[in-house]
Amino acid sequence: MVDGKTKLLKDWRIRILIASLLLLGIFPLAFKGLQFGMDFSGGSIIQLKLERKVSPDTMGTIVQILENRLNGFGLRDISVRPWEDQYIVVSVSEKEEKNIDVLKDVLSKQGRFEAIIDGQIALYSKDLKQIITNYQEGYGYISSTGEWRVPFTLSSEGANRFAKIAEGKCRKVEGETKCERIYMFIDRPQNAVILVPTDIYQNESEMRIDPTNPMSYVIDIKELEHNSLTKIIPTDEINDEVINEILSGNYTQVIIPEDSTYDISQLERLNVTVIKKPKVDTYWLWSALNLKSVLFLTPGVTSGEPITRAVITGHAPNLAEATKEMTKMVVILRSGRLPVSLSIVGTMSVSPTLGKGFLSQSVYIGLLCLLGVAAVVFVRYRRPKLTLAIIFNNICEVLIILGIASIINWQIDLPAMAGIIAALGTGVDHLIVISDEAIRGTVEEVSLITRIKRAFNIVLVAGFTTIAAMFPLMTLGLGMLKGFAITTMIGVLVGIIIVRPAFARIIEELV
Predict the structure, then answer these.
(1) Which of 279, 314, 317, 421 has its Cβ near the most Cβ atoms within 10 Å?
(2) How far apart are CA 194 and CA 461, in angstroms?
(3) Which of 485, 486, 477, 480 is nearest to 56 (CA)?
(4) 67, 80 contact by CB (below 8 A)
């Protein structure tokens, strides 16, 4: 027996199993641990509704853009799943209410960028060639002025259009050079009218570009109306005059303050969408119009010569707020414009306490699976050592899978746990095939090595068939099925490359 154990420990297959168990399994789990997904650690679910039903291809584009936006925040364990042809369910492991509000704001944006000069659209989303995030090239926050900056480069088409519209927009007035302003919007309201209570209208009739700086320049509300291409109606009630103006303009959207006292029942008979915008810390009209930046043109960009770079600016009280705003702007502009607009229809939190319950139940299920496998194997072969060998190999396989998940920072959630259990079941099938071929020697006059090789051919075909079945689930972006597919594939590869050869050597010794 001692000779047999010594032989096993000297065999290269057993040594690879032990080394893999230590380096890929036990050490990563001991020193780094596992990262758990929303199912186990808690998180949030955000429900989105598209403005209209879309085709499967369009839905796939929307899902990809939203995933890119969430990835832009460095989030892991995200899931963006379509529901029918008009809804999307987004799951994230984030639980902080402030961070969820930022994500909701980013997700709900269509990402339609426009720059307007003197009532003419000079730039569109398609004109943005590259968003610059290099601090040496102008990106960042200037603490002395409270201004943040996000530069970008323009396509040749956009540069030429901008040059044509901006040409001559700076002029000499009484010896002083005066230039038009450029207004930059993200998701400017389309075919909309804004109803503003008179107190808000008066308070915002002259708006400072930086509300926190009394020395910053002032924007007149009429100029804002002209450059937003949106009708602004000051009124304290929705009367016949307002309704007639809405009808005569053929508007499809009416935007009002969220806490206004308007009787919107009068708008129900009109074929319009009523949008309630919440109050903000600065100016309500900025939020209602989705205005992001207002800049003076300079003589250098009004000569008619195309320029290749521009910049979006904003103001923030500190670096943290500025970083948040710059990140949002970069994520929205880089991810691209959504084919249709969408809105948030619901948000739900997943309790961490509930997640811990899921985790403990998953562990119990895994242990029950091992016990069930042990019972079935023992009943079949009546060989305690063979049963222990199969269970030992299964435990090694699970530890190596979890260790690899720790190394690659893959978060363990319910689908991933299901994938581990599926890989465990596949592994048992393979071990039984090898055991049957090895034990058949009492009936078949074939060498043990030949029988094990024959078993390995069966195992390899079955393993790669499983991988082929899982590959589409991993690559097609099917949300929660992706975790299941990845853990199943890792489990099958670990079994074929590491665990099965070692078990074959052990079975040789036992038989």
Answers:
(1) 314
(2) 66
(3) 477
(4) yes
Helices (H), 255-315: 284-289
CB 93 within 8 A of CB 41: yes
Would you call 319 helix, strand, or coil by DSSP?
helix
Amino acid at 425: G
Measured distance CA(228)–CA(20) in Å, rounded: 63
- pLDDT tens sequence across 8-49: 777 788 888 888 888 888 898 888 888 777 767 777 888 999
As a whole number of angstroms, the distance between CA 264 and CA 458 comes to: 70
Largest CA distance in the chain: 110
Q: What is the pTM of this model?
A: 0.65
| For helices 448-475 and 500-510, angle between their N-to-C axes, nearest 10 degrees | 160
Query: Among all chains, which residue has been given the structure tokens 């090595």?
Result: 449
Contact between 266 and 238 under an 8 Å Cβ cutoff? The reply is yes
**What confidence score (pLDDT) does residue 223 get?**
92
Angle between helices 384-407 and 12-20 (to 10 degrees): 50
* Phi, psi for 477 (deg, rounded to 5): 65, 45
Q: Which residues contact 441 (CB under 8 A, 6 or more apart)?
A: 448, 451, 511
The predicted pLDDT at position 293 comes to 83
Q: Give the chain's residues under pLDDT 50.
A: 1-2, 442-443
Going across the sheet that includes 192-196, the strands are 231-234, 192-196, 253-257, 273-277
237 φ/ψ angles, rounded to the nearest 5 degrees: -150, 155
Q: What is the pLDDT of residue 228?
A: 94
- Go through the domains of the chain in sequence order and give each one's CATH number: 2-38+351-510 (1.20.1640.10), 189-282 (no CATH)
pLDDT of residue 492: 82
pLDDT attached to residue 1: 43
Looking at residue 139, its pLDDT comes to 92
Is there a contact between 162 and 201 (Cβ–Cβ < 8 Å)? Answer: no
Q: Give residue 194's pLDDT.
A: 95
Quickly count: other Cβ atoms within 10 Å of residue 475's Cβ.
10
